[in-house]
Amino acid sequence: MALIEGLNAALTLELPRIVFYCDYFPIYQFVTGRWNPKQRKIEALVDQVTQLREKFTYCIPSLVARNDVKFAFKLAREAIVSQVNRSTDTSAEGSLYETCVICFEEMSIDEIFSVDGCMHRFCYSCMKQHVEVKMLHGMVPKCPHEGCDCELKVDSCSKFLTPKLVEIMKQRKKEASIPVTEKVYCPYPKCSALMSKGEVSEYSRSSAIDVGRSGSRKCIKCNGLFCIDCKVPWHDNMTCFAYKKKYPNPPGEDLKLKTLAQRNMWRQCVKCNHMIELAAGCYHMTCRCGYEFCYTCGAEWKEKKATCSCPLWDDGHIIYDSDEEFDEEFDEDSEDEDYYESDSDDYY
Questions:
Q1: Which UniProt keywords apply (predicted)?
Q2: Who's near 137: CB < 8 A, 6+ residues apart?
């Protein structure tokens, strides 16, 4: 849409020859005809770009690295911020209005959210979409302003989030607060509560469980006993080795899950064994335990770099087919769903 607006502006200025630069690879592939859009909305936008390009005597796209045009983004954002308007509209009974720097809509200041700490301001609608997308991919939401690392507070975000999304945000913050090596998940399917090793050990001691001599622990949520070493329900009077030898095959429910996973091409994290489904984005996956791997072959990612030669993404997973598809991601119980992130926010 920004490209279409730019092309229309160039036509208004009667510029016959132009080169427009793309720092986003998928858009460059679309406008050059190398990729065919699978979504109707994107196809309509690409067709509109094609029609506008035909009105120029010379109109060529050029692909550039985002780092090479950082200065342009900086100038654009400064121009956007300069357009913020807090003047009084006397025709609207003295109400104050402000332009959201994300959607450019003029909103009543009652619908503008101010981020605690940095005081950057955005409308409730844009903030809600921003927070939803971040949480959908297992990330702790931060201020949308470029380069700002100020984390959003749950209490403040409750102004524009539903109670269910508030609970998901609390879960995301808890996941981020526990180091990867300290994370423990309850093995009982109906619970799956997240705990830290220290937290679960302290709770088990208060419940008169000898945590020093055995691997027995008690879940802080469902009170179910489980083994901290092999991450299964507690096997009384049996070592972990003996338990695995006696029960080499997974339970019936696990077999059904694995069959379903094979049918839907889900992947299982080799570190924590949680099942993962790629909803959208690239094939660089980050499990909720922190383990990073390639969704295609399972190879580990090290220092944000792939150790395999698989393609980074597929066009069909980059952009949602419809708004409803995005909304459905939050229809399931948040405790039973795992959300994962790509290495680049640009793909969402």
A1: Metal-binding, Repeat, Transferase, Ubl conjugation pathway, Zinc, Zinc-finger
A2: 281, 339, 340, 341, 342, 348
